[in-house]
Specification:
The structure holds 2 protein chains of 2 kinds. By secondary structure, chain A is of the alpha+beta class. Chain A contains 12 helices and 12 strands. Chain B has 3 domains: 8-132 and 197-275, Alpha-Beta Complex (Aldehyde Oxidoreductase, domain 3), CATH 3.90.1170; 362-376 and 389-459 and 609-761, 2-Layer Sandwich (Aldehyde Oxidoreductase, domain 4); 466-604, Aldehyde Oxidoreductase, domain 4 (2-Layer Sandwich). Chain B is globular, with a radius of gyration of 27 Å. Chain B starts with 7 loop residues before the first helix and ends in a 12-residue tail after the last helix. Classes of the chains: A alpha+beta, B alpha+beta.
């Protein structure tokens, strides 16, 4: 690590002020991505502003048909919260598949979404559910938020404060974990909310994306067979030492089908 | 709370002492500048900025190591090459002088007040390279026109070995009814012991002594290599080690960093410490396997094996590590025809140099290469001849009554009952019930396969005798000293139990000190699964020596002639009377002095022996994702006499799982163009996990060996030697039902799925996925 100053602000305002005052300051949430980056000397922030304990960024509640989760809420809290498990079981199940217990005990929703790793799980839920990402400045629709690999609509000094998930009528997430990292080699989140079906895919492409063909097919008929009839063009999907694009194209179909079967075969929309 | 192993309380409560637990007053920290490219000429290097940084004490380069009289890191061939050829040794400097030959090679060593300061200074070194063409993979290395790594090694071929009788094999092939051929690749893997390598060196300017705290599998070998590299006299080099967090072969050799840190300690006059990061472990720990091979088996019309012919082309990396040639050729030679009564066999073994990290020993050390080759070839023969794989083996196994068996290349297996081990394994695995299980799997859309491997191991005799010492201290505590270092093999428990059984003293009374520089012993490092029969035999001798010494003390105490005294159950009796004295009381009576009259140093020299086994694996494959699940694994092993069943089971669990790791995913991939390691972290390199194997059943089938007093054969590596071929045979059996006829490790989901898709499309190459491109 290079040297940096560690600051623990008492309020969101103070955190925002610190970020505004120091060009090279970075928010630190669970640190599960940022700390390894620092250890590898791949980043050299002047200050780390620790936002993990800010009360404004914590909490889980359901209001007006929405599940609202504070940005500093840890994965383990989402996975085990009775509120989440009742209102949006697919999201609790998703959180329980992230990394390992140590990572889930530290890593946070806001950190994951802000980081927008192309293989992260949460972005699929945020996009498929049409969630709204709130910052101290504005509200950003999921469709505008994710802008490709490690890129989001977040601006310098802007902090995610909470994420509001509209409650779906039915939803499920199916993930194929990467054999080494445990991240999503591919993950598919299927949600039907207010009569509209949205399907988001993580891991397969350069950043999370909506799978429009699947959405259209499911709007026609909400069944695994609709997915199985699709042909996925692998061009543009990720290819690396772990798998060719064709494999990820295949996984999209396999996982979307699993998600649908999970939705249709159980009352709860669990992870397939 | 009671622990089944004596070392467990210390290790599980965090009281173990590893290299990074050592701290010495005034210590400085080293950091290394490593080559960031695979093959390049160093045009210039400017360390002045780094040297001028406030907390920096020294920046060492090749100039300094040359000035200090350092030489090449050592290497040697264990046997002569074909036609008496010698190993052409590449010069391996501690710090690269003119050319860097693999990504991660050490170029400079910075010593500073803190670790951070040392790292900052490394970044301040200005170095200019002129890139040279990169050679990745052994085939590329020996291809005509390949860039040459070392001026003295034409065609990048360091040596070629031949073992066996090529003429007899040719004659057998000429009269055979069937010839089965198979090309296989045993991929390069990174071992990743849990403890990263590291060292802490103190130099005593007064005496000229170096105290090197280091991860080691055996202090004597480590010292020898340090002496060979640095030119410092043997009596001035003291290797210190307590707990070592895993080795698998990768903690055997003296890495160049250790010599550099020794020099740093001398130059700065301060203790210098260096502990590798996990990235450095990936980049600069020796890798292993990396063997391209061809096997041919000649059979007669009845399915009798007539001859084996093998070719092994080894990717040795950029230099030859000391254990590299040993691993490449000795196990092939020792296990050339496996468990089969084949009259002729020959293997050709070539060592090629490539622009990647050097290769060395890794659990199994070549036996998983030859067992994998033989057992896949035998399965291939079973398929081509439409004979049940168990049956084909039955027809060809060496019968028990033929022991000792003279092998086709002039060695001898001392003992074993291979047919009985096979039948035992088939029974444990419920081989005949497989079809029913396959039907059940098919109902769930899964492909199911069963595969077996009958194999022989060769455990080391060692390069010389093993010395052990026992010192009788206060409170009845007996301290044992031995060279072979525990890096997870339960030496403490095993040694104590050997002595406890003979001396009749509780095992808790024994303490083990492995790497204490005050007690210099001759002996072999931990390797080749030989510690129990090597050091164990020496301890058995030591026990007798102690009893003999005790008899003299007992004779004096009981006032009779020593000849009239018998020892049993920890007690010396005067024969035919009820007068006796316990060993324990003699220990107590004579304690208090600087030396105890029972203090003993003993030694033994043991030969190698041949553990063997039969493993049966069963897998399920999800054809939609290519995921392989190991649903059953049955291992029946002849490890000779078993002294501690828990330790044996632990070694088998670990070894089998380590094999499963390589089968299912481990692969150290270097980019063919740049030579960069593409799997340089746990985000990309899948380590085996404890949950990987379901339905694991172990069974012992001991046939004691006459080659050592304990009858033990060794068990540290049998797991991987058996699981590699058994698992791949099971996977291929499952894949064959989907039309796949050939498959190389690793069986990653994407590669399995690709192979099934290709077979379905009738075009084997369409989805072929060479991950190294
Ligand atoms: C071993 C391992 C396995 C993992 N496996 C998975 C997995 O299976 N699936 C998965 O999805 N993820 C996985 N992760 C990543 C994990 O979920 C991380 O916790 C997450 O990516 C980052 O969250 P964090 O709270 O730790 O953020 P940090 O590391 O603290 O921060 C990450 C980035 O986001 C910024 N940031 C943090 N909070 C905010 C905020 N509120 N507003 C704006 N910017 C912010 C930081 O400045 C930093 O740039 C894994 C990580 C590890 C180490």
């Amino acid at each position: 690590m290079y040297e940096f100053s560690y600051v623990k602000p008492a309020s969101l305002d103070e955190a925002a002020q610190l970020l505004a005052n120091h060009d090279d300051a970075k928010p630190l949430s669970g640190g599960m991505t940022l700390i390894p980056t620092l250890k590898q000397r791949l980043a050299q922030p002047s200050h780390l502003i620790d936002i993990a304990a800010l009360t404004e960024l914590r909490g889980i509640e359901v209001t007006a048909g929405q599940l609202i989760i504070g940005a500093a809420t840890r994965h383990i809290e989402v996975a085990t919260s009775m509120t989440v498990r009742t209102a949006l079981p697919a999201l609790a199940a998703l959180a329980s598949t992230i990394g390992d217990p140590q990572v889930r005990n530290r890593g946070t929703l806001g950190g994951s979404v802000a980081n927008n790793d192309p293989n992260a799980d949460y972005p699929a839920a945020v996009l498929a559910l049409g969630a709204t990402v709130h910052t101290q400045r504005r509200a950003i629709a999921a469709d505008d938020f994710f802008q490709g690999v490690f890129t989001t609509a977040i601006e310098e000094g802007e902090l995610i404060t909470r994420i509001a998930f509209p409650l779906p009528t039915r939803a499920a997430y199916a993930k194929f974990p990467h054999p080494a990292s445990g991240f999503a080699m591919t993950g598919v989140f299927v949600a039907e909310t207010g009569g509209r079906v949205r399907v988001a895919v993580t891991g397969a492409g350069p950043g999370v994306f909506r799978w429009r063909e699947a959405e259209a097919a499911l709007a026609d008929r909400f069944a695994a067979e609709s997915i199985e009839a699709l042909v996925v063009d692998p061009s543009g999907l990720n290819a690396d030492i772990h798998a060719p694009a064709e494999y990820r194209a295949n996984l999209m179909k396999v996982l979307a089908s699993r998600a649908l079967r999970a939705i249709l075969n159980s009352s709860e929309g669990a992870v397939a | 709370m009671s622990f089944s192993r004596l070392e467990d309380r210390r290790l599980v409560t965090g009281a173990g002492r590893y290299v990074s637990d050592w701290h010495l007053p005034g210590q400085l920290y080293a950091a290394f500048l490593r080559a960031d490219r695979a093959h390049a000429r160093i045009v210039s290097m400017d360390v002045s900025q780094a040297q001028a940084m406030p907390e920096v004490h020294a920046v060492l380069t090749a100039e300094d190591t040359q000035r200090a009289g350092f030489r090449s890191l050592p290497c040697a061939a264990p046997i002569p090459g074909k036609g008496g050829a010698e190993l052409i040794k590449p010069y391996r400097p501690v710090l690269a002088a003119e050319v860097v030959r693999f990504v991660g090679e050490c170029v400079a060593c910075v010593v500073a007040q803190t670790e951070e300061a040392a790292q900052n200074a490394v970044e301040a070194i200005v170095i200019e390279y002129d890139d040279l063409p990169v050679v990745i993979g052994a085939e590329a290395a020996i291809a005509p026109g390949a860039a040459q790594l070392h001026p003295n090694i034409p065609g990048n071929l360091a040596i070629e070995f031949e073992t066996g009788d090529a003429q007899a094999v040719a004659a057998a092939f000429a009269k055979s009814a069937h010839i089965v051929r198979l090309d296989l690749h045993n991929q390069r893997v990174a071992g990743n012991p849990m403890e990263p390598k590291g060292c802490l060196v103190r130099h005593d300017a007064g005496t000229g002594d170096y105290f090197v705290h280091v991860c080691t599998q055996g202090t004597a070998g480590m010292r020898g290599q340090l002496v060979a590299t640095t030119g410092i006299a043997d009596e001035h080099v003291h290797v210190v080690a307590e707990d070592v967090g895993g080795g698998f072969g990768l903690r055997f050799n003296a890495y160049p960093e250790y010599s550099a840190v020794m020099l740093a300690a001398r130059i700065t006059g301060r203790p210098v410490r260096w502990v590798a990061s996990r990235s450095e472990v990936f980049l600069s720990d020796e890798h292993a396997r990396g063997v391209s091979s061809r096997g041919e088996l000649a059979l007669d019309a009845q399915g009798q094996f007539l001859a084996f012919r093998f070719d092994f082309l080894n990717d040795m990396g950029a230099y030859i590590a000391p254990t590299g040639p040993v691993v490449a050729v000795l196990s092939i030679r020792a296990c050339l025809a496996g468990v089969y009564k084949v009259p002729a066999a020959v293997a050709n073994v070539r060592l090629a140099l490539t622009n990647s990290v050097p290769m060395a020993a890794y659990r199994g050390a070549g036996r998983p290469v030859i067992s994998y080759m033989i057992e896949r070839l035998v399965d291939q023969a079973a398929v081509e001849l439409a004979i049940d794989p168990a049956d084909l083996r039955r027809r060809n196994l060496i019968p028990a009554h033929a022991m000792p068996w003279p092998t086709a290349n002039g060695l001898a297996y001392d003992s074993g009952d291979f047919p009985a081990v096979l039948e035992h394994a088939l029974e444990v695995a419920d081989w005949t019930g497989f079809e029913q299980r396959r039907t059940q799997s098919a109902a769930h859309g899964r492909l199911r396969g069963i595969g077996l491997a009958s194999f022989v191991e060769a455990t080391g005799g060692g390069a010389g005798p093993d010395e052990v010492e026992a010192r009788f201290g206060g409170h009845g505590e007996i301290t044992l000293f031995a060279v072979s270092h525990s890096h997870g093999q339960s030496h403490e428990t095993a040694y104590a139990e050997i002595l406890s059984a003979v001396l009749g003293l509780p095992r808790e009374r024994f303490r083990l000190r492995n790497g204490d520089p005050a007690v210099r012993l001759a002996g072999n490092a931990t390797g080749g699964s030989r510690t129990l029969h090597g050091v164990g035999s020496a301890l058995r001798v030591l026990a007798d020596d102690v009893i003999a010494k005790g008899r003299e003390l007992a004779a004096r105490a009981l006032e009779v002639a020593a000849a009239d005294i018998v020892f049993a159950d920890g007690r010396y009796h005067i024969a035919g009377t009820d007068r006796s004295v316990t060993l324990d009381s003699l220990i107590e009576q004579h304690s208090g002095g600087a030396v105890h009259p029972l203090d003993t140093r003993s030694s033994a020299r043991t030969g190698g022996t041949f553990p063997n086994g039969c493993h049966v694996a069963e897998v399920e494959i999800d054809p939609t994702t290519g995921v392989v699940e190991i649903v059953r694994f049955s291992a029946v092993d002849d490890a000779g006499t078993i002294l501690n069943h828990t330790i044996v089971a632990g070694q088998m669990h670990g070894g089998i799982t380590q094999g499963a790791g390589q089968v299912l995913g481990e692969h150290a991939i270097c980019d063919r163009q740049s030579g960069q390691l593409l799997t340089g972290s746990f985000m990309d390199y899948p380590m085996p996990r404890a949950i990987m194997i379901h339905g694991l059943t172990l069974a012992e089938h001991p046939v004691p060996t006459p080659t050592n007093v304990l009858g033990a054969k060794g068990v540290g590596e049998a797991g991987v030697t058996g699981s590699l071929p058994a698992l791949m045979n099971a996977i291929l059996a499952a894949l064959r039902t989907a039309g796949v006829t050939h498959f190389d490790m690793p069986a990653t989901p994407a590669r399995i799925w690709g192979a099934i898709e290709a077979a379905r499309a009738g075009d084997a190459r369409r989805f072929a996925y060479d991950r190294a491109q």
